[in-house]
Amino acid sequence: MADDEQLIASLPKATSVSSLAELCLYQGFWCPTRLLPNVLSFQKHFQAQHQDILVASVPKCGTTWLKALVFSIVNRTRYDSSTTPLLSSNPHPLVPFLELEVFSKKDVPDLTTIPSPRLFSTHMPYAALPESIRNSDASVVYICRNPFDAAVSLCHHLDELKSSSEAQKSMEEAIDMYFKGIAGFGPFWDHVLGYWKESSEKPKKVLFLKYEDLKEDIVGELKRIAEFIGYPFSEEEERRGIIQEIANMCSLRSLKELEVNKSGTYLEVHPNTAFFRKGNVGGWADYISPPLKQRLENVMHEKLSGSGLSFKLS
Questions:
Q1: Which end of the chain has fewer CB within 10 Å, C or N?
Q2: Quick check: pTM over 0.70?
């Protein structure tokens, strides 16, 4: 523990986009300082199993939605829309974050008793994941979103967490900082390109999804996810409308209307309501001025240049 404290004290520090949290630069990414002990424990102690399924993302890129979808695909023979645990639980505890929840206690958790396939999630960059994940046959399902909407969504989320007495950067200041890479688990560019590269080189290991594609063709994307994680839909299930049932059950509108997501908190900090705002594509246009948009677009094109990865802005 003393070694961990010494390491944390030695790392470069910065303030997050919201001015709410201190970040430290660890292994090339900005980690919220309060979470770094959990990250270190996760990296040291987590032992992947070949059938594990890991949902990975940059914060505010459709994580909650993807958790609900993956959980429902894997458990569709156990539950239907009238019996699913999603009716009584926010999606986050059903696919828990390794660095926020699973490794948040002083004692190292015993995960060997969890039935296979174990479902977990993370916001950590691919290069920072434990070797046991990277070297196993565990499946990684990654979701990202155009950085304009991701930045605006993060600002709204953090705004809900601050007290009235805490200073807040202006939306444009915070978005500018986000594009410069100083945000929890950022830089955004390194995060998405890390998983993008792995998905290109190891398509059986990492499935790379875009939020916008899920919005445009949810049934097609659900079939891709199910095939990738080893739970493909049968023709009979397609005929019975199971894919559409899962899509409807896990939609933002359906989840938002559930009583469990209208009250309560996740990890005693995040109001459940904060995970279900609008979920629109292109909502950033209400918050980003044309001059800033042009400047940020230039940053985006520079950062993604030559990668083959691009984002639609509307």
A1: N
A2: yes
